[in-house]
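Retry 2 of 3 after timeout on previous attempt. Resubmitting structure tokens to design endpoint.
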């Protein structure tokens, strides 16, 4: 079992409320949740029990981890709020959801997902760029899911549109990502 980094104790997970077409995404999300909880990290996520959100929460709960869900009132029924969490915080809207998830977390992980996942990832990267936090972000780039995004961000940097280096790292498996998080040290 790995030991959590001194600077990272809680991890915000961004991922799909859907499972995707291939069962590998669900399996990997479950494994990621299990490994993070087993390593002693608290998981902060969108609060749903469906798709990859449900898988990561279930994985963490199986490992007896602490899982905190943050969900807007309007999505409690639509995304089916997970009722077995350590804590489920119901907030008034999406903006408050993101704000609370950022506030409660020491770092961020994006698993595969859709537009909501990208919105959350870009919000934390933007907040970093403008100095609202100094927290790192990690991508689970299984099977190259985020290759095009990584390339786009590199092209933005090369063209001079980014201000300084983003604290964004990627790994292709849950185990490799866990190791990357465990060894991360803020500079």
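Retry 2 succeeded. Sequence:
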């Amino acid at each position: 079992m790995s030991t959590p980094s001194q600077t990272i104790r809680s991890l915000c997970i961004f991922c799909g409320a859907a499972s995707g077409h291939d069962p590998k995404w669900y399996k990997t999300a479950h494994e990621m949740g299990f490994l993070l909880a087993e390593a002693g990290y608290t998981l902060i996520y969108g609060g749903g029990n469906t798709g990859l959100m449900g898988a990561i929460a279930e994985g963490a709960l199986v490992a007896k981890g602490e899982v905190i869900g943050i969900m807007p009132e309007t999505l409690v029924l639509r995304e089916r709020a997970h009722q077995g969490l350590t804590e489920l915080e119901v907030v008034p809207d999406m903006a408050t959801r993101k704000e609370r998830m950022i506030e409660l977390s020491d770092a961020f992980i994006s698993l595969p997902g859709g537009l909501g996942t990208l919105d959350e990832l870009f919000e934390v990267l933007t907040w970093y760029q403008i100095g609202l936090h100094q927290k790192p972000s990690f991508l689970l780039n299984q099977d190259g899911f985020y290759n095009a995004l990584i390339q786009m961000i590199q092209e933005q940097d090369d063209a001079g549109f980014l201000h300084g280096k983003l604290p964004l790292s990627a790994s292709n498996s849950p185990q490799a990502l866990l190791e990357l998080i465990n060894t991360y040290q803020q500079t």
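Attempt log closed. The chain has a mean pLDDT of 93.
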